[in-house]
Specification:
6-stranded antiparallel beta sheet; about 25% helix; about 375 residues; single chain; Rossmann fold; elongated
């Protein structure tokens, strides 16, 4: 889909003025669009097997593009994380088209009252419109710092200036914990103003176009996160790697209802069993950093595979009717992980009435454990 499809006239699509190749383009005076990655089709080459047997979920997916917007004089919405030019939202700073088309516009009075950014500062708004979700927080919000940090137009204009990441009031505990873990802290909390005006840099993160277009740059974001969130000094990464089973049974959906029947067999294979709700964020991240095989039902917690080592194996579990080209399938594809998936018998719950992907499930013990054993044996070869 073209960035301008179905967009109202007052939504600006800067990429219509840029050529479809990597580079920096001054799309209007003082406003630059940098294309870090163009849109391309990524063919899956990482699929290994499934239960029941299939040829895979999809042949591949559209990944990218990745944009950076740098402006000399514009407004940024601290709460939504959008860049505004003449009061109009810029499409390339929002992930999903419907979020920018339904965006609540600022009044002329709001924009006129916006505090000015000091000449010696460039502001990057950390917020995104879906950042309350753990997956979107990392790929749409935290990824902005990584994407903008790669921008040549930003580096050219940073001489003699400071880059400030402006953080709105954070609504979830995991967001606060993540920010506390960052080693890089040029952050400015701004809870009193919705808008700022002046020099700014912005991006939609790594998922522009609908939220599932995981860009190839995610491969380099893993290294960025290793520097941003440094492993505790007392922990040494296990060179052999752990087998990690991530339980979702504290959640309200996609629970494996016969999990207790499966755990003894998984432990016999060497799997470490974790329940993310019982771990600190640091412990969760370190568990994924040390894993060489990750086994889990589909869910936002799998976003942590961006911390995993090269050549990791991911085994994703879906309920019947919920198998789809997930963000984690696509992250695994971009990271060249081995990918397996298993499908369990669905059991309806309150959440599945909205989306069959949210059903709980039951796995056949014998066939599932045999399937996992084959994946473990393949990893050892």
């Amino acid at each position: 889909m073209s960035p301008s499809d179905t967009l109202p006239a007052d939504v600006l699509s800067l990429s219509n003025s840029a050529r479809n190749k990597v580079g920096v383009f001054e799309v209007q005076k003082g406003v630059f669009l940098e294309v870090l990655e163009t849109q391309k089709f990524k063919t899956h080459r990482h699929f290994r097997a499934s239960l029941p047997e299939s040829k895979g979920i999809e042949p591949g997916f559209d990944s990218g593009p990745v944009y950076v917007v740098y402006a000399e004089d514009t407004h940024v919405d601290i709460q939504a994380g959008l860049t505004l030019i003449d009061g109009n939202p810029v499409r390339e700073t929002a992930v999903v088209p419907k979020l920018v088309t339904t965006y609540q516009r600022a009044s002329a009075e709001d924009l006129a009252a916006a505090p000015l950014i000091d000449d010696g500062r460039i502001v990057l708004p950390l917020a995104s419109q879906r950042m309350g979700n753990y997956c979107r927080w990392w790929l749409d919000s935290v990824a902005k710092m990584f994407v903008c940090g790669r921008s040549t137009v930003l580096r050219d204009n940073l001489r003699g200036s400071n880059l400030d990441v402006v953080i709105p009031e954070l609504g979830t505990q995991f967001q606060k914990q993540v920010v506390d873990l960052f080693t890089w802290q040029p952050f400015v909390a701004d809870h009193s103003n919705r808008f700022l005006r002046g020099r700014s840099v912005n991006s939609s993160g790594l998922t522009f176009g609908g939220g599932q277009r995981i860009a190839g740059l995610v491969r380099e974001m893993a290294s960025f996160l290793d520097n941003l969130i440094i492993p505790p000094e007392h922990r040494t990464r296990d060179r052999s790697g752990e087998l990690l089973y991530v339980s979702r049974n504290e959640s309200s959906m996609r629970r494996i209802l016969n999990e207790n029947d499966l755990l003894p067999g998984l432990r016999d294979m060497g799997f470490r069993i974790i329940s993310p709700g019982k771990l600190s964020l640091t412990e969760q991240i370190e568990a994924f950093r040390n894993a060489r095989i990750v086994l889990a039902a589909h869910g936002a917690g799998l976003t942590n595979i961006i911390f995993c080592r090269p050549n990791t194996t991911l085994i994703e579990i879906f309920p019947e009717g919920g198998v789809h080209g997930s963000a984690f399938l696509r992250i695994a594809s971009q990271l060249n992980f081995n990918y397996y998936y298993a499908v369990g018998q669905k059991v309806e719950n309150r959440q599945s009435k909205k989306n069959p992907n949210n059903s709980d499930l039951i796995l056949d013990k014998s066939s599932f454990l045999s399937f996992v054993r084959r994946a473990v044996d393949a990893d050892l070869k």
